[in-house]
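We close this part of the discussion by returning to an individual protein. The encoding preserves chain order, so positions in sequence and tokens coincide. The sequence in question and its structure tokens are set out directly beneath this paragraph:

===
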Amino acid sequence: MSYVSITDVKISHAESPFLSNFEFEITLECLAELKEDLEFKVIYVSSATNKSKDQTLESVSVGPIPIGVNRFVLEAPPPNPATIDPSDLVGVTVVSLQVSYMNCEFVRIGYLVNNEYNDPVLQEEPPSVPDMSKLVRNILADKPRVTRFHINWENPQVIEYPDNMDEDQAMSDHDMVAEHQQALAAQAAAAQAAAATAAAAGPSGQAMEVGVS
């Protein structure tokens, strides 16, 4: 049995400037007395292909946690754009909330984040030097990916894979980014194929005949 359950997370200002703070309102239920505080981390994926570039935006200890329902607000600063490759500043990435007890992670909540310019001209032709004043982020707050890990709450020892999953099935934050990028690429390819088919069919919707000389 898990001693702590994260029952709700609300994200304030899901759409906001890139350089604004993240704000999470977290509700949790504690079912048993805890010997130590809980640790909450906010991690930003700066590169889908390089885990070493992940940024820890905030790391705080919260406690003592009384038995029952508890609620608090966790605020984290934005990522440092200077450490992010310009090609990774725009597009889809992930921000995750990771919760640990005695250095053992027991739940991770990941959110897809879409960063884009709020200027249509810059959307069509992004500047070579990023204009951070016009970059906005949109957090898909209603579609989190929640991963829970088994731990021994009396003597925590984390298992390397989530509940009801084999180790090979466990999805990291970077997997989330890659999966979404692949889905977007597949959608774009399908749209291009549909457009090519429509162009070949001609205005009447019938395939055009090509003469052979």
User: Anything to note?
Assistant: The radius of gyration is 22 Å. The longest strand covers residues 104-117. Residues 15 and 131 are 17 Å apart (CA to CA). Confidence is low (pLDDT under 50) at residues 166-170, 184-191, 205-213.
